[in-house]
Write a structure and sequence with these properties.
Elements lengths: L5 H12 L1 H13 L10 H14 L5 E5 L2 E9 L7 E7 L19 E3 L2 E3 L7 H18 L5 E7 L9 H7 L8 E8 L8 E3 L1 E2 L1 E10 L5 E2 L9 H9 L23 H13 L3 H7 L10 H10 L4 E7 L9 E2 L2 E10 L5 H14 L6 E4 L8 E2 L5 H14 L4 E3 L15 E7 L11 E3 H20 L2
Parallel strand pairs: 3-6, 3-7, 7-18, 8-17
Antiparallel strand pairs: 1-2, 2-6, 4-5, 5-19, 9-16, 10-14, 10-15, 11-13, 12-14
Length: about 450
C-alpha cells in the first residue's frame, strides 16, 4: 500500500472519529423521499441537502430549474491550488415499488447487519455525503481544501436529467471546472476495488408505438383489421441480427477505434477479474454469443447495443380474451459508444423504419435527445488522480474500464470526466432492500478526500 501523506492521514483519522455523524446525516437524507419519476419530495430533499452542507461549513444554494427540481450547487475555492474539481452526484432516487418486497421500510434508513437500508442509501445519497463529509474533513483538519471544489447535486438523474441540460446551458459559469468526477458507481465484485470509467456510452431511450383500429376488435375479424402487435414484432426484428449487430444503415459511422491504451486495459482486466462471478451473480451459464475474457469486456464497454426493455400489447390478465389489440408498444434503449452522434442516430432509426415499410410506427423519444458519448485518456490528470486515490484507500489498483455513463453537463461545458464509486456489489440499487455497507460508506468518504488531495497536489 502507498504511504499516506501526513495531512491526508489526519483527514482519514478525522473521518473515522466522526463516523457516527456521517451515518446519522445519511439516515436523515435517506429518510427524506425524493422520487423524480413520481415528483415526490424533491424540493424538500434539495433543501435538506443545502442544510446539511451549511451545517458542515460548505457553500450551497438550491437553484430553481424551469419546470424541474432544484439543483444544489456550492463552491469552495482553495487558496493553495489553482485547479477546480467539479463533484457531481444526485439526490433523487428510484421508486420504491414493490413495497412488499422490502425487509425494512424503504425510507426507514434502518441499520442492521452493518448496513444502512433504504431507498437511495447507495444510489446516490451516500455519494452526495461522501463529497460533503470529505470537504468538511479537510476544513476541520487543515482549514482549507487541497483543490477548489464545485459541488453539483441534481434531482432528476434517475429519469434522464431532463431539466439539467437547459439549466447548465443557461448557467455554465456555475459548473466550469478543470475536471469532473462522479461518485455514482461501485467496487468491482471480483477485485473489490473501485470501477473507474473513463467515458460515456450515450443512452438513446425511445418507444415504438404501432396502432391499428380505433379500439380493440373481436379476433373473429383478425383477417380484416391491422394487427399492431405483429407489425411491431416485424419492425423490431429488422433492427438487429442474431449476433446482435445493429442493422440500421450508417449506425457504426464514427465509432471509436480502440488503440493500444484501450487494449492494454482490457487485457489487464481480463487477467485480473473473475468473470465467472458475474455469471453466478446473474444466474447464467455463459455470456451471450459465447464471449469470454477480452472479448466479453470489450463488448460490454465499447459495443453499440439495441435492448428491448419493455414490450406490451393487449390483454395481460388471467384467462383469455379474444381481441385484436389496437395498439402495441415497445420501450428500447440503444447505447451509443464514442463517437456515434445521437442526433444522426435518431434520424437513421426513423429512416430505417420508413425504408422497411414501418414508417407508420411512431418513434417517441423518452427524456429528449441524449448527451453525446465521450472518451478520455487514462493519462489525464483526473484519471491518474483517481487511480492513485483508489489504490491508496482500497489497498490495490482499481479496475479501469472503457466507458460508462454521465454526460449531460458535458454537452454544454466540456471537461475531462471520470465515473467511479464505492458501493458494495450486493447493494440492490434500483431494487427492494437497497443498502450501503457502512464500512464502504466511510471508505467512500476517504476516497473522495483522497481524490481531492491527489488532484490538487499533482500535475
Amino acid at each position: 500500500m502507498s504511504t499516506i501523506p501526513h495531512s491526508l492521514q489526519s483527514v482519514f483519522d478525522w473521518i473515522d472519529a466522526h463516523r457516527q455523524e456521517a451515518i446519522v446525516d445519511l439516515q436523515r437524507l435517506v429518510q427524506q423521499p425524493s422520487v423524480s419519476a413520481q415528483k415526490i419530495g424533491l424540493d424538500e430533499c434539495a433543501q435538506l441537502t443545502v442544510d446539511l452542507m451549511h451545517n458542515d461549513g460548505l457553500d450551497a444554494t438550491a437553484y430553481p430549474t424551469p419546470d424541474g427540481p432544484p439543483c444544489v450547487i456550492g463552491h469552495m475555492p482553495s487558496p493553495s491550488s489553482n485547479k477546480t474539481l467539479l463533484a457531481y452526484a444526485h439526490y433523487d432516487v428510484q421508486p420504491v415499488e414493490p413495497v412488499e418486497k422490502w425487509t425494512y421500510p424503504p425510507y426507514s434508513a434502518h441499520i442492521a447487519e452493518g448496513r444502512l437500508w433504504g431507498r437511495g442509501a447507495t444510489d446516490n445519497k451516500s455519494g452526495v455525503l461522501a463529497f460533503v463529509k470529505a470537504a468538511k474533513a479537510w476544513l476541520q483538519t487543515t482549514g482549507e481544501l487541497p483543490v477548489g471544489v464545485k459541488f453539483i447535486f441534481e434531482g432528476e438523474e434517475e429519469i434522464g436529467s431532463i431539466h439539467l441540460g437547459p439549466f447548465i446551458e443557461a448557467n455554465p459559469e456555475l459548473v466550469q471546472a478543470d475536471a469532473m468526477h462522479c461518485l455514482d458507481g461501485g467496487v468491482h465484485p471480483s477485485a473489490m476495488t473501485p470501477d473507474i470509467d473513463l467515458g460515456l456510452k450515450s443512452v438513446l431511450f425511445f418507444e415504438l408505438i404501432a396502432r391499428g383500429a380505433n379500439a380493440d376488435i373481436h379476433s373473429l375479424n383478425a383477417p380484416l383489421v391491422p394487427q399492431p402487435a405483429w407489425e411491431l414484432l416485424r419492425a423490431l426484428n429488422t433492427l438487429v441480427d442474431e449476433n446482435r449487430r445493429v442493422l440500421i444503415d450508417g449506425w457504426y459511422e464514427g465509432l471509436w477505434e480502440l488503440g493500444d491504451e484501450e487494449m492494454e486495459q482490457l487485457e489487464a482486466n481480463a487477467q485480473r477479474l473473475d468473470l465467472n462471478s458475474l455469471k453466478q451473480e446473474w444466474g447464467i451459464e455463459e455470456f451471450a454469443l459465447g464471449r469470454e475474457g477480452v472479448e466479453a469486456l470489450k463488448a460490454r464497454a465499447y459495443e453499440p447495443t439495441c435492448n428491448i426493455a419493455g414490450l406490451t400489447s393487449g390483454y395481460q390478465g388471467p384467462g383469455s380474451k379474444t381481441i385484436v389489440p389496437n395498439e402495441a408498444r415497445a420501450k428500447l434503449d440503444m447505447r451509443l459508444p464514442p463517437l456515434i452522434d445521437p442526433e444522426k442516430a435518431v434520424e437513421r432509426l426513423r429512416n430505417h423504419l420508413i425504408a422497411h415499410g414501418f414508417g407508420h410506427i411512431e418513434v417517441k423519444l423518452l427524456g429528449g435527445m441524449p448527451e453525446p458519448p465521450y472518451k478520455i485518456s487514462v493519462k489525464e490528470d483526473i484519471s491518474q488522480a483517481i487511480i492513485r486515490a483508489a489504490t491508496l484507500v482500497f489497498g490495490a489498483p482499481p479496475v479501469i474500464n472503457g466507458v460508462s455513463a454521465e454526460g449531460t453537463i458535458l454537452k454544454h461545458v466540456w471537461m475531462p470526466t471520470v465515473l467511479t464509486g464505492f458501493a458494495q456489489p450486493d447493494c440492490n440499487l434500483h431494487a427492494p432492500d437497497e443498502s450501503i455497507d457502512l464500512d464502504h460508506y466511510i471508505k467512500g468518504i476517504k476516497y473522495a478526500a483522497a481524490i481531492m488531495w491527489e488532484y490538487g497536489n499533482h500535475e
